[in-house]
Write a structure and sequence with these properties.
By secondary structure, this protein is α+β, with helices and mostly antiparallel strands. The protein has helices spanning about 1-10, 25-35, 85-90, 100-110, 125-130, 140-150, 155-160; strands at about 40-45, 50-55, 65-70.
Length: about 160
C-alpha cells in the first residue's frame, strides 16, 4: 500500500516519502495527543466505527504506554443474542459474518439518525461519566448531555429506546 501511495503522490508531482500508514482511529488519537497530551482515547463514528485507547505499561508487557486498537466494528460474541433482524442484515452484507457490529451500527444510526451531528463536537470524560451514572428511568441526564453536545433531541432518544 505504501508503494502505491508513493507512486500516486509522484504522479501528482509531490516529492514525498510515506514513512507510515495508520488506522484512521489511531491517527485521530495521535492527532488529539499532539494537541493535548491528556487525550487517552479516540472513537470513529462514520462509515464504520472503531475505538482506540492508551494503556499503561503494567497492563501490557511493553515499556511506557501503548495504544490498544479495539477494532470493535468486528465485535461479536456467541454469548450475545442474535435477532432475526441481525441475521437478515448480516446475510445481506458484502462480507457475511464480518464486521457485524458495524453493519448493525450503520442500520441503526441511519434509521434513527443517532449520530448525525450538527457540528464537530467532542464528548469529554465528564459528560461520559455523567451519562454512565444516569440512573433516571427516562435517562434525562443522557438526553441533556447528548442534546447539549450533539443537538440530539429527546424524541430521537425516545424513539430509539422504544424500538
Amino acid at each position: 500500500m505504501v508503494a502505491e501511495l508513493t507512486k500516486a503522490l509522484s504522479r501528482q508531482g509531490l516529492d514525498m516519502r510515506v514513512a507510515a500508514l495508520v488506522n484512521d482511529t489511531i491517527g485521530k488519537l495521535a492527532g488529539g495527543k499532539y494537541l493535548n497530551n491528556n487525550v487517552a482515547a479516540a472513537v470513529i463514528l462514520g462509515a464504520g466505527t472503531n475505538a482506540v485507547y492508551v494503556e499503561r505499561a503494567h497492563a501490557v508487557p511493553k515499556s511506557g504506554e501503548t495504544i490498544i486498537n479495539m477494532e470493535w466494528g468486528n465485535f461479536w460474541s456467541s454469548h450475545l443474542p442474535v435477532a432475526e433482524f441481525d441475521q437478515a442484515l448480516d446475510q445481506g452484507s458484502l462480507n457475511v459474518g464480518e464486521q457485524i457490529f458495524e453493519i448493525l451500527y450503520a442500520e441503526y444510526s441511519t434509521k434513527w439518525m443517532l449520530f448525525q451531528l450538527k457540528s464537530r463536537s467532542i464528548l469529554r470524560t465528564p459528560e461520559m461519566s455523567a451519562m454512565h451514572h444516569d440512573t433516571s428511568p427516562d435517562l434525562r441526564v443522557v438526553e441533556s448531555k447528548l442534546n447539549d453536545i450533539f443537538g440530539i433531541s429527546g424524541s430521537c432518544l425516545e424513539s430509539t429506546l422504544n424500538e
